[in-house]
Amino acid sequence: MVTHENPATGRDPGSRAAVDLRVSQNTYVSAADPAVPAVITVRGAAGHPSAASAVVLLMDCSASMDWPPSKIAAARQAAVAAIDAVRDDVLFALVQGTESASMAYPAEARLVPATPEHRSAAKSAARRLAAAGGTAMGTWLALARKLFANHPDHIKHAILLTDGHNQSEAGWVLRAELAKCAGLFTCDARGIGDDWDPLVLRETTTALRGRADAVVAEADLAADFRRVIDAATGKVLARLRLRITTMPYATVRALWQKSPDDVDMTGDLQRPTTRTAEVDTGAWGAETREFLLSLDLDPAGLSAAEEVQVGRVELLASDGEVVAGPVAVLARLTADEVLSSRLDPKVQSYLVRDELGAAMTAGWNAHGRDDTAEAQRHWGEAVRLATELGDAEALHRLRRLVEVDDARTGRVRLRPDVRPRDAFSVLLGATITGADPPPAAQPAATGPNITCGTCQRISPAGTTACPQCGTRFDQ
């Protein structure tokens, strides 16, 4: 396995923050399946912000928030906590959302700086939030877009809280508004209670490059809002673009962000030239993100004698200056199926995470059909995979749904008291991959090669599943 590292850590213009770029991959490629998967790791460091920040709180105040009363109380407390967490002079506003959107603070449709006076007045307004009316989230986002419009150079983020279904507007209206907002600001969303649609929240945050999650315990909402505000206003780079340049014998098949959230970015790729693909990765702070790149190759351009460069990866600031890279993506042709099928540890980890997410989602679908046996089977498989990965967060979510008898084999029993919010948490957690440290490369396993009984593909000793057809070797 090979990890290619840029020769020097790059910095954005003005030396505000360091950016580190690496590529991890297996360079051996089979002529029968000429493709290269590679994990791109980007690490941003703390520094002086290159742009000011702006935040809008979108609080559901529909009639359903009034029962049980703990929901609206938690929303008020969370809004107060978020306002307290906004850094000095960050612009902010508080929006009250029902079947329409209205300003809770300030009274006019504008953003105000987080001075002591504005914070105090905004917290008073938050404590007066009242529940009445319907739910039309598209109108809430439209008002956020209007508020942000006068601040094009700010790093902009919205937080949306809801407890119900988006029943006061048609689905196409929300989707049209999401299309208008995409690229202008990011948005995290939280669902509170047991009667809301997690798929709508996921659609919203996927479009707006944020994270959707369930509020499992209302008492935890305020702390969650503080964490979101800290992350949103702690960005130091307003924008980074990931550029992938390929050789004439290589093309980009797909690009996913895999950590901290699983997002298919293939459709977002822009192609300035026939050999260049770029994607906007948004604002950055002191954080690590990982992307899985898949390249299709023409074997005629490869060599069995040596590694050749099939592409390169760079990071660009908003002004187009290269701030990290280029880092090469390499390939070497081989007829040895053992060499070509041995996956890089990072790539292998994300393939298993894909299985984990699929099992968590399949369990939720089965539970929605009242098929308890299938739900138990899928969530048991999810427990097994999460245990294999050491994914403590996924296990924490799954244990709300199942009693675990044997985590290693996935033997579980469905809990009789599963609440909808617990199932929502597992569904939305299926795309939360965390920011775990990169897995260390493991020594190659010893022993004979393994021949798949289904497709006859040969894999190296220690392989747990066939990389071609998916047949597991440990069952």
TrEMBL record:
<dbReference type="InterPro" id="IPR002035">
    <property type="entry name" value="VWF_A"/>
</dbReference>
<feature type="domain" description="VWFA">
    <location>
        <begin position="52"/>
        <end position="233"/>
    </location>
</feature>
<dbReference type="Pfam" id="PF18571">
    <property type="entry name" value="VWA_3_C"/>
</dbReference>
<dbReference type="InterPro" id="IPR041176">
    <property type="entry name" value="VWA_3_C"/>
</dbReference>
<protein>
    <submittedName>
        <fullName>von Willebrand factor type A domain-containing protein</fullName>
    </submittedName>
</protein>
<dbReference type="Pfam" id="PF13768">
    <property type="entry name" value="VWA_3"/>
</dbReference>
<dbReference type="InterPro" id="IPR036465">
    <property type="entry name" value="vWFA_dom_sf"/>
</dbReference>
